[in-house]
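Lay summary. Proteins are chains of building blocks that fold into shapes, and those shapes determine what they do. In this project we predict the shape from the chain. Here is one chain we studied, written as its sequence of building blocks.
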Amino acid sequence: VATQLNLAPAYDLGELVRKLDRADHESLQSIVESVADGMDVLAGTSDLELGEEVTAEAVQRIMTLMRASYTYTVMDVEHTVSPRTIAALDGADRIVMVFQVTVAGLRKVKRALTLFGQLDFPPEKVLLVANRVGAGDVMPWPDVAKALGRPVDFRLPTV
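And here is the predicted shape, written in a compact code that computers can read:
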């Protein structure tokens, strides 16, 4: 997220994890980077050692702190299944899966939906968003819904 927004934050998630046992609203505000009125970014850490300290328990504590400090929180989680990813997904009110209509994209969504079912996530918790929809799609829309076992919630066209 920091890269996409062209940010060079002085602090990141690693700094928060170091202070997590005493973290509160004020310490969170000293770590996040304000990018717009009412929008702050807590950048991920690039420090590999600190990255290992971001455990499932740390994710849960960070989410609790974020909920107490913000009306909305958007998390960009890693694309692998790990205890910390599952903790983030479990604690989320909504999961928005953005994918492309490619064979690989559809397989990833199908695997994720299977995992969410195993974790007993209600279907309405997950929103499916097809990105870059256009002539290059690998199958027609009725077949996409059939392959996924549910309809796609939103389609964003290729620009």
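What the prediction tells us: The beta strands are 33-36, 39-41, 95-99, 126-133, 154-157.
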